[in-house]
């Protein structure tokens, strides 16, 4: 079970992220899951518990460069899409720089599509790092929707700036490509 008020990193993850004298490769933790599943909460907790990890977030890159959606720039999907493409390029550059520096990294990202995950797997492998895919598996669709609604009711920040409509959420749910046999650590979201 995964609780969004996480205080400890699950042992199933913790045992995979340590460097040893026999294996000192840097570690890349990839979060994978739908909106509302707890990826960002987990990534922040990981960084708090393991300060050697650098966290990358597209949402925070957009916020750093442009501010909040609908507050600092118009609530316009075309503008947001262009900012997201720009942030994706920054994210990739920063990721490659961290890999080259042999840093431990947390990728706070949905990894919605297998193609996206595969691209990052190749980058990780080509830089001699190890990967740990943490999949936040939603057991009940409505639990995620309730979390999204609760988050939308709170004050906006970099990680919750974009309101997700029910239609958009349903599209995410039906289009999500669940990792299967990708050596994923599964955290059930209840």
UniProtKB/TrEMBL annotation:
InterPro entries: P-loop_NTPase (IPR027417). Gene3D superfamilies: P-loop containing nucleotide triphosphate hydrolases. It holds the Pfam family AAA_33. It comes from the Eukaryota. This is AAA domain-containing protein.
